[in-house]
Amino acid sequence: GGDLAASLMTACAPAKTEFKSVDITGAEYARDFKLPDQNGQVRTMADFKGKAVVVFFGYTQCPDVCPTTLSELAEVKRQLGGDGERLQAVFVTVDPARDTAELLKAYMGNFDPTFIALRPETPEQLAALAKDFKIYYKKVEGKTESSYTMDHSAGSYIYDPQGRLRLFARYGSGPQALLSDLQALLRAS
Question: I want to staple 56 with a disulfide (CB 3.0 to 4.6 A). Which of 88, 114, 145, 156 is the partner?
Answer without folding.
Answer: 156
